[in-house]
Predict the structure.
Amino acid sequence: MSEPLLRVVDLQTWFQVSGMTAKAVSGVSLEVRAGEVLGIVGESGSGKSVTALSFIRLIPDPPGRIVAGEVWFKGRDLLKLPWDEVRKVRGREIGMIFQEPMTSLNPVFTIGMQVMEPLLFHYDLSRDEAWERAVQALDGVGIPDARARMGDYPHQFSGGMRQRVMIAMAMICDPAILIADEPTTALDVTIQAQVMELMLDLHRRRDGAAVVLITHDLAVIAETCSRVLVMYGGKVQEEAEVVELFERPLHPYTKGLMDSIPHVQDKGKRLATIRGNVPSIFDLPEGCKFCTRCPVVEPRCWTEEPPLREVAPGHRVRCHLVPGTPA
Amino acid sequence: MSGNATGTGPLLEVEGLHVHFPVHGGILRHVVGWVKAVDGVSFAVRPGETLGLVGESGSGKTTVGRAIINLLRPTVPGVRLSGAIRFASEGGVVDVNGLDRAAMHPVRAEISMVFQDPYSSLNPRMTVEQIVGGPLRIHARLTKAEIRERVLALLDRVGLQPQYASRYPHEFSGGQRQRIGIARALATRPKLVVADEPVSALDVSVRSQVINLMQELQEEFGLTYLFVAHDLSVVHHISDRIAVMYLGSLCEIGTAAQVYGDPVHPYAKALLSAVPQPDPHRRRSDRIRLQGDIPTPLRKPSGCGFRTRCPLAKPSCAEKVPELRDVGGGRLVACPEV
């Protein structure tokens, strides 16, 4: 297998809030491979967003701090680079799309200014050249009458159109990796489908580029991703190819998530549930992070955290009760 | 629409409901226009059933729910409401829309609401006992001890421990808060519960717990639900019938199997085809792509509201607002082209 685009080793990102430490990400290792759409799925507090934000050091410090780990990208550890070197990577080689297009666009600058900005920052382009490139980018993401809309402000665009603008901005420097953090969660379902298709379409047209899609929605994962990481309690609990994960989920948490999705044929029946509540990140158990809610928990799960083990090619699970070799 | 399979009338009958919100502008803040949030909606809810009301943002689904519990006039100055909202209360059928504050008072005990956001819908300065007991203090002639007893029984029923009664909302997780909201909604033993996106803010692993709880309570207390939501797989799971709204009007209403499994109205079709499926083998290639965005209800297209994005639109669609008609099997569709 060829060298991954991005390799994360034992990432730890902690937050200090009123004297307490929240280990939002506690020891995540992963790879982002060329050409793939990698899904990171998890619930609130699982650490999925903080993991991705840590790649490009977008963690507000204080309260957050990346306390350990390595993020290897093109032969360099991004966590050890000087600040202005990180800024050259961010936006140019690793692009980002956030959940809320209204708060991630600046309301007092025109759309044109904002789409041009990464070009002017990263390349030695004249304003006229950057302007033309921005028009093309907006046109490419399906903004009708792009040239005329360059002078408009974010509030003059609908939610779906703003997310298209965000995509245009994130892709304008042709990044090797696009991180999309819940890109369609704030959008209506018909608009969500349009935006998702646009993102995947742009991805397919760019050879070797990768998308990291962060979401809480397993259905979105099923429709878009090639490989999936399931996170819970700041750790990767399971990792597999998408078909493998949906056909053969092994971690009790992944199984619980899959079972709690309503299926058409189960109408009228009670849904399967995961008991209890998502634990606070200030108060995670010492052993397996899922032990407080796990239906098959054993005494050792409370004290001893299981390692993430490979049980089949490309399928890794963090659970004491899953046998080490496939049956 | 009157009568149903059981021979009794509907519990709730909405007829020709219009809700128009004023838009203020200029220095003097006078009314410069009207947002037609709900524009002629009629449907009936039978006793004991769950009617799912779905639609995207701006469709008016939440406004319909708020009109039914008569929450609009006190909260939105200058709102224009017309049409009938007939509710079969203990004291006979009343038109909620025509009731003043005093006349609405006894009806409020029979219609309650569960809100979307479990964080903002509970008063942070009140204990759980005060929150859940609130409706009882207003509506029931009970002593303090009796109220406490009822509150503890309600908490037990929604799966919360009795010692939680003296705690405050911030001490609970989202799922627990939604249980508190449900306990409050059930305190006065209502007949109809309007649930506005009750599980949208919850994590997947907690969402199914709350859905199951709502179904158990429905069977136990014979509740009728109007379940307003945008998540179609959840709506299909919990609803007997589904009504689809677009831009203030109903497009289609029928059984859950009819609307979810085989929608007829072009908007309902597009909406259902856009729902992502949790199955990597069934990646959709047949998705219906709607062009453009939902128009603002401030400038609603003439005639059929959906015609600007509809693949079947004809010039005649601009002339007349399509009416709901029976297309067989009890299913009603507002489109002359199907």
Remarks:
- Chain A is about 30% helix and 25% strand.
